[in-house]
Amino acid sequence: MKTTAALQDIFANALDIADASERQAMLDRACADQPQLRQRVDQLLAAHEKSEDFISDCISVVAGSVGEMAPASEPGEDLIGSRIGPYKLLQKIGEGGGGAVFMAEQESPVRRRVALKILKLGMDTKNVVARFEAERQALALMDHPNIARVLDAGATKSGRPFFVMELVSGVRITEFCDADRLDTKQRLELFTKVCHAIQHAHQKGIIHRDIKPSNILVTPVDGEATPKVIDFGIAKALEEKLTDKTLFTLHGQFIGTPAYMSPEQAQLSSMDVDTRSDIYSLGVLLYELLTGKTPFDQGELLAAGLEEMRRKLREQEPPRPSTKIDTLGEAELTATAQRRHMEVPRLRSELRGDLDWVVMKALEKDRRRRYETADALAQDVQNYLANEPVSARPPSRAYLAQKFVRRNKTVFFACLLTFLALAASTVMSSWMYLREREARRMAVAAEQKQLTLQHETLQLESLAEEREKFMSAEEMYENGRRDDADALLEQVKQFQPGSDHATLYRELGDWHAVNGRWSQALERFAVLFQINNNGQKDTSLDDERCGALLVDQGRLNDYEQFRRDLVARNTGADNVQSAQRLIHYCLLVPADKAWLQNLDEAAALLRNSLQDEAGISRGNWENSAFALALLAYRSGHFAEAADWSSQALARSEGSQPREANIRILRAMSSFQNGDKEGAISELDACRKVVDDHPATPNDPAHLRQTDWYLWLTTKIHLREAENLIKK
Amino acid sequence: MRPGLRPVILFHHLEMANTSNRLYPARVEMSEITMILQAVGRGERKASEELLPLVYEELRKLAAAKLARESAAHTLQPTALVHEAWVRLVEDGSRTWENRAHFFGAAAEAMRRILVDKARRRARMKHGGGYERVDLEHVDIAAALPDEKILLLDEALEKLKLEDPDAARIVVLKFFGGLTNEEIVQMLGSSDRTVRRQWSYAKAWLYDCITAGH
Questions:
Q1: Do A97 and B164 touch (CB under 8 A)?
Q2: Measured between CA atoms, how close is B155 to chain A, in angstroms?
Q3: What CATH number should be reported for the domain whose range is A75-166?
Q4: Which of B5, B146, B150 sits opposite A248 (nearest CB)?
Q5: Is residue B41 part of a domain?
Q6: Which of A254, A453, A594, B104 has the maximum number of C-beta atoms within 10 A of its C-beta?
Q7: From B67, which residue of chain A is nearest by alpha-carbon distance?
Q8: Where are the domains of chain A?
Q9: Nearest CA in chain A to B179
């Protein structure tokens, strides 16, 4: 605030003056006619004198009380034994983010043990509270035997929010299966229950986002082993879209479980994570239940560093379950099989084939290829258990036949015998063929249905993916990985970049140019040109880059289009600089008289602006005169061109490439006028300047990123001049 | 209301299996602070809100760990604690000046909260428990207890923040972060003269504010 700044200044200045009367005088001057200000300053000065003691006191108090941060003051401990409504806190059983979870005893209306999650002390930032609330709401929406239920919610007297859940005493699903030596079939049964629970959540519009073994506890319910999904702490309601770039759930995933993170969760923005991300995690769970390992080793992922981890999750194909177990050492393999109550060979053969395919389908990098729903995944698992065909594999004749045989072994063999007995093969085989054809038809129909369902989201998804690619490219560029950023940008086709994306294209384009990779540079600037066409209404240095490159690369058809677009973009522009540039960038190459009329408006603007000699800067004079000279030259008015060039030169500001341009133009005009000798010598001088200068497009190593295109235009003009002289 | 969400780190239901309760952060959580710092550096609004509770938690754990080892509590200085946390929690390659600024800013603020909360609780208990606001109006400044002093300071600091947030920030950094002038100068990219002037002003202002009602 202005008043505060003034006050502070006066106050501080006063303090600097040791002599009392001098200080008074200064204050009288500074606060003349402002009695309130003076009063305040005096007040503060007085306070300052007395404050030292108090302040140093406070500092030592603070210093001393750090010891108070001991565990005894953990808010958790404070609460043990205390009551919150009808709940008595018994023991702390966990904590995290902003909340702590306790085992509590509910006293009324029923007596039972529950889990109570409460916001920690000091954690009352809006953000944390909001998150806490969101978790509670997410849980309250659900009602499923395999999901921990919310029983109650409220706030303590001091306003700390809490909620109460069903207390689940159980064992992690993976550990349960191992400890009880469940075989594959039993594990799969358990797994389908988990799928159904997740399906329920999805139907309520909640994505769990953190499915992993520690979040699925198995507990006996009426004697039956029941999995319970807990901890929807990072679940997100589907309707609420995070539009900022947030990294929170990303953090969350990184904390314990990158191994369970879906490829799209490993991207930079969490905008497009949907239910299929949970399906991926379910796939990882299934993988672990079957093989004892996750597709990617967690330790390896964490050790690799952020970017590498992301890359692996998004690009590297994990080994199939049956392949994975082969990578285990002998001892470990035997142990793994034992934990599944079987021998190694059997484990191998069970995993190979259908189970492999089911798991891999859930783990597809491209989420459109995964199971659409958790129920679909559960269904395929059930299919496997019932020896029905699984959707995860395209149904070939032989495959379906194989399934058919297995399903109906006894029937099949009976038929076979009959067939043999009858020796009338046609009846039998056509019956089998019909069944198989039916099955295939159904499979195709199912696939069609999937396709139509996905059709609408297809466009949006690929657009979103491209947007995401762009952001990845930005990130890479910032980390100095220019090649990678550039390569990624190549892949972006559909995406319509806007002006916020211009910078990356420009930077990469400049980078290419400076390294002499002209055609790649041109590609980037072509995009930039489009962006500018869609956005701004006049010209910029971007256009010089684009135009110069097009001409230098010999893309004259494209250059024609370029200058047409540039003119269109500039209709009605009233800016002198834009007019200068428009004319210059459009006339790097000759144009016919009719087309030149497009530039009349700009030229008139420039002529008018030059009337007022005094009001223009030298630079502007130079550029405007040059533009008019160039236009005159293209129109065939060589004398006029020479004249304008001289005027421009007279007011030159000293930029070498620009000056060279003017002199080259003047030389060409002189030549056309008949003064061939003068022209040639002037041109020689120019060439020397250009050659002497280290930073020209002939030697990209020395180009500065901000200069290369200026010198490129000079090169172009020089080339034209030399061709003219040769003739 | 946008739920920027983060999971419960450990299992929050009773588990038969053994879970090693780490008192001190493992390598995994170190990455988290670094990532949040980077996010803050990129200007992501929500990231800075996220930083505070995390730093808060780490400081408490660190204090607890140190106390468990060193029996003499008076050797525990806020400066030392915050600096140690900085070194422990942020990897070598990420100790940029920018990150340092964000981290210490959050740490000082966290420290403030911890101490103020503690003081408030104790003051309440002294006044008979319950959850009413402590009545600071009738406190004699000279005879004020340490707890009350902190609370008075905190209240005044909140007011200062409204009028001059820059000066308030310096107060927090000095008081609760234990930073020297040079460190503050480097962190805020300010000048020594400016910092000194703001600090003098702030001191006078706070004292004036605190004594105003008495």
A1: no
A2: 13
A3: 3.30.200.20
A4: B5
A5: yes
A6: B104
A7: A70
A8: 2-66, 75-166, 171-393, 496-726
A9: A59
Instruction: Report the candidate in A91, A134, A96 with the shortest Cα–Cα distance to residue A113.
Output: A91
Domain total of chain B = 1
Nearest residue to A160 via CA among A134, A125, A135:
A125
**Catalytic machinery residues of A:** 210
CB contact, 8 Å: B195 with chain A? no
In a domain, B56, yes or no: yes
Give the burial string for A425-438 (b: 16+ CB within 10 Å, else e).
eeeeeeebeeebee
In a domain, B13, yes or no: no
- For A603-661, strand residue ranges (E) read none
What top-level class would CATH report for the domain A171-393? mainly alpha
Helix (H, G, I), strand (E, B) or coil at A692: helix
3-state secondary structure of B96: coil
Digit-coded pLDDT (tens) for A669-679: 988 888 888 88
**Best residue of A1, A3, A42, A65 to probe chain B, by most B CBs closer than 10 Å:** A65
Residue B109: how many other CB atoms lie within 10 Å: 19
Question: Cα(A285)–Cα(A514) distance, rounded to whole angstroms?
Answer: 50
Q: Is B190 on the interface with A (CB under 8 A)?
A: no
- The structure's pTM equals 0.43
Instruction: pLDDT tens for chain B, 214 residues: list them.
Output: 223 333 332 223 333 222 333 333 333 334 567 777 777 777 666 676 677 777 877 777 777 766 666 554 445 566 677 777 887 777 766 777 778 888 888 888 888 887 787 777 777 766 655 444 555 555 555 666 677 778 888 889 999 999 888 899 999 988 787 777 777 888 888 888 888 889 889 989 998 888 876 5
CB of B151 within 8 Å of any CB in chain A?
no
Asked whether the beta carbons of residue A70 and residue B63 sit closer than 8 angstroms, the reply is yes
CATH of span A496-726: 1.25.40.10
Instruction: Determine whether the interchain pair A95/B27 forms a contact, defined as Cβ–Cβ distance below 8 Å.
Output: no
